[in-house]
Write a structure and sequence with these properties.
The protein has about 220 residues and is of the alpha/beta class. It has a single domain, classed as Ribonuclease Z/Hydroxyacylglutathione hydrolase-like (Metallo-beta-lactamase, Chain A, 4-Layer Sandwich). The chain is about 25% helix and about 35% strand. The strands form three sheets. It has a six-stranded mixed β-sheet with strand order 1-2-3-4-5-6. α1 packs parallel to α3. The N and C termini lie far apart (about 40 Å). The relative contact order is 0.15.
């Protein structure tokens, strides 16, 4: 039986579908994050398959749907999911051109801004960090859970380096600046990215000099889009 004062937790839902941008197409696996407790959750990055996400929500109230950025593989289930669970969608305004390429007749319900606070079930508050570079409106969400600090990094920071910048509206020096901001967080901060396995700030900080030296020519893995 569900309890009304359950400890807040993070759940990963894995979905698979097509990433499309600049005429490119690739099949990618996306991490969809559910953050909350037994009664209510926030959905981060509604990707590919709303039915799979609804099944994972399992009847709980959805407080909102947050998009870490506007690439299609992070928003292509957002509107259908929002209609199914009656929840608002939030996106940074700098990514509206990416959103409109997928949803020309519907706007996000809310705008994410740097420093905004998003309260979630269980007493945790997520803070919005504007981290452009992979896209102009890319954001991360930072919160402190009973297990310690947690960062939902979208495609700004992945296991093994920053997200790709070989696509429209992206910029390698900008994403390095965003990553430097994240690397100032406590090294034990757990990073839940938009693709791939978890990592920590400390683990990724150790590789920063290598990423910077490598440059954008390392952006060749479609799984990081």
């Amino acid at each position: 039986m569900r309890g009304r004062h359950a400890i807040p937790r993070v759940e990963r839902v894995l979905t698979r579908g097509e990433f499309t941008l600049d005429g490119r197409r690739a099949v990618v696996d996306n991490n969809v994050w559910l953050v909350g407790d037994d009664e209510e959750v926030l959905v981060i990055d509604a990707a590919h398959d709303p039915a799979v996400i609804v099944a994972a929500v399992d009847g709980r109230r959805v407080a909102g749907i947050v998009a870490t950025h506007g690439h299609n593989d992070h928003i292509n289930a957002a509107v259908e999911l929002a209609d199914l669970v009656r929840a608002p969608i939030a996106l940074h305004r700098a990514d509206h051109m990416l959103w409109q390429a997928i949803y020309p007749n519907r706007r996000p319900d809310r705008a994410l801004v740097d420093g905004a606070r998003i309260p979630i079930a269980g007493g945790v508050v997520l803070r919005v960090l504007h981290t452009p570079g992979h896209s102009p409106g890319g954001v991360c969400l930072l919160g402190t859970f009973p297990t310690g600090p947690v960062l939902f990094s979208g495609d700004t920071l992945l296991h093994g380096g920053p997200g790709t910048t070989d696509c429209s509206y992206a910029d390698f020096p900008t994403i390095l600046g965003s990553v430097r901001r994240l690397l100032a967080l406590p090294p034990q901060t757990r990073v839940h990215a938009g693709h791939g396995p978890d990592t920590t700030i400390g683990e990724e900080a150790a590789g920063y000099d290598g990423w910077a030296a490598r440059g954008p020519t390392g952006d060749d893995d479609p799984a990081t889009d």
